[in-house]
Amino acid sequence: MTDASRRESLNRMLVQARRFAERDNFIDAIARVEHVLSELEGAGEAFASLRAVAQGDLEDLRARDAVWAGAIAARRKATVDGAADEMARPLPLPPPGG
């Protein structure tokens, strides 16, 4: 694989990672960026700029994933905390004769 086609392939994976992140699919986005970084491990200085972009993307994705996971945990806690109130309410009864 030539350097140009390798760069194009890795750039494509970074774009895919960003698109996964737009849909809050951080697990797949982080996996893509980590794969790109592993591919760039042995690469020379020709890929230094791409490595820097991927490293920045990875840091951003991990931060966004932490915020997203915190929001999910807060919603889950609110649901659990409200379960006793929900269980205390009577069930709706069907209309008479219905």
Compute the gyration radius: what is it?
23 Å
What series of H and E elements makes up the topology?
Answer: HHHH
- Looking at how many chains there are and whether they match, the oligomeric state comes to single chain
Molecular shape:
elongated
Overall pLDDT, averaged? 90
Layout of secondary structure:
Blueprint: H1 3-22, H2 26-40, H3 48-81, H4 83-88
Brief sketch in words of this structure:
This protein has helices at about 5-20, 25-40, 50-80, 85-90.
What would you say this structure looks like, in words?
With about 100 residues, this protein is mostly helical. The chain has one domain (about 5-85). Helices cover about 75% and strands about 0% of the residues. The protein contains 4 helices and no strands. It has helices at about 5-20, 25-40, 50-80, 85-90. The termini are far apart.
